[in-house]
C-alpha cells in the first residue's frame, strides 16, 4: 500500500529549531552547524519517514532565518572528477549555483562558497572559483593538510588550518552544507572555528545529521534504510560506545563518526580550548526520532526503501559494467531487515506479465491497493502502457476505451523514426503525456485521465527492463517510486541512457 503518514512535520519544525537554539545557548558565542544530507530536497527522508516533506529541514531553519547564514562547501577534487548528483542528474558545480539560488529565494543569507582540498593545479576548481567571483560570490580556498586528521600538531597550527582562507560571516548561527558527501563540511567548520577563536570570537561546533536516528534501535528499518542508501560509502550503523560508557545509554551512530570521534574531540579541544562532548551522539542535534507518530508506517516505508536501494545497485552495476560489490552490501542490509527482494508487491505482477508476452512489462500499485500492469506493444513501451492504464483506472474509464488513437500515435512514431533518427518507434512516457494533453482539448476522457496524474505520487512501480533516462525522469517528476530488473531490453554492448 501507499505509505500512511508516520511523521509529524509540524512538531519536527518546532522542536528541531528550538533544540538548535538551546544548543547555541549551551555553547555560547557563535555556532557552526554541520548539516548532513539535503537541506531542501531530502527525498530519502521523505520516503522513509512518510509525512516528512523534502523541504522539512529548510522549513525548520526558516523559523530562525534572521539568525542564520549559510556556508556552502565543495571539494575541488569532485570538480576534477565531474561528480554528479544522481537524483537530479546535474553536476556538483551546477548544484552549488542551484543551492545558492534556492536559499536566497527563501530569504536566507548566503554569500560564501568554500573550495576544499584545493591545489594549484586543480584547473577546474580555479575556473569555478573565478566564475563564482564573477557572479558576486565570496570564495575561500582551503588547502590539503598533510596527515589530516591524525597530525594534530600540524592541523592546529598556522601551517595547517591557519593557511585556509577565512570566510567572514556575520550571523551567529552558520549552517555548513554541501552538494553531497565528502565535500569537506567538517573540515570547513573546524577551520572556521579555529580562525574565529584566533580572532577572539568564541565559536563552537555541532552536527545535524538526520540518519541514522540516534534514539531508534540499531536495526530499526529506518536506520537500515540509511545503510542501504550509503552502500557506496560502506557505512554501517553501530552502537555509540562512547555514549554508552559516559551515560549508560545505548544510542546509534554510524561507524565513521564513532571511529573519528577521539580525533575530533582532541581537535576541538585544541581549537577551542575545551569541548562539552563526551560522544559523537552528544555532537548531534537531531530530533527526528521524537517526531515519529506511527512506527509501523515508518517501518513499512523503510523496508520498501531498502528493497528499492537493492535494485538500484543491481541496475547501476548492469549499466556501468561493475562488479557486485555494492549489490552484495545491499543484499546484506536486505538480510538484516529480514526481507526478500520479492517483498515488493509490484514485482511479481510485472514479471508475470512479461512471462505472458515475452516482452518487457511494468506494474504499479495505486493508492487503493489495485495493481495495474502494462505490456510492450508496437505503439507503446511498457511504462507508457502502464501509465495510461493506471490513469484510466483512477479516472473510472473503461479498459476498452482508447485515450490515444492509433491515428494520433502514428505521426509521432514517424517523426521519431523518419525525421529524428530513432530506432525505437514506441512512445516514451513523456511523448504519451504530451499526446494525452493534446487529446484532452477535444476528449473529455483524456482530460479526466490527465487530472489523475497527481494521484500517482508515492506509488510503487516495477519494470522488468532498465528504464531509459526519459522514462526515469518522468517517473521522478511524478513522484513515482520505481525499481527495475537489472536487464536491458536490447542485447548490445552500448546502451543509450
Descriptive notes:
With 497 residues, the protein is α/β, with parallel strands linked by helices. It has 2 domains: 9-216 and 243-290, dip2346 domain like (dip2346 fold like); 345-496, Cytidine Deaminase, domain 2, CATH 3.40.140.40. The protein has 20 helices and 14 strands. The chain has helices at 9-27, 43-48, 56-62, 76-80, 92-105, 123-134, 152-155, 185-198, 221-229, 241-247, 255-272, 280-283, 295-320, 325-336, 347-357, 382-395, 406-419, 429-440, 444-450, 469-478, and strands at residues 30-35, 68-75, 84-85, 90-91, 109-116, 138-141, 173-177, 203-208, 237-239, 252-254, 361-365, 371-375, 460-463, 481-484. α1 packs across α3 (56-62) and α9 (221-229) packs parallel to α13 (295-320). The radius of gyration is 25 Å and the shape is globular. The mean pLDDT is 91. Residues 5-337, 342-494 form the DUF1846 domain. Belongs to the UPF0371 family.
Residue stretches low in confidence (pLDDT < 50, at least 5 long) are none
CATH superfamily (homologous) name of the largest domain: dip2346 domain like
Major beta sheet, strand line-up: 6-5-2-7-1-8
- Terminal CA distance: 31 Å
Total beta strand runs:
14
* Rounded mean pLDDT score: 91
Shape: globular
Give the count of structural domains. 2
Domain DUF1846: 5-337, 342-494
Protein name: UPF0371 protein IDM48_00795
Pfam family, one: DUF1846
Family: Belongs to the UPF0371 family.
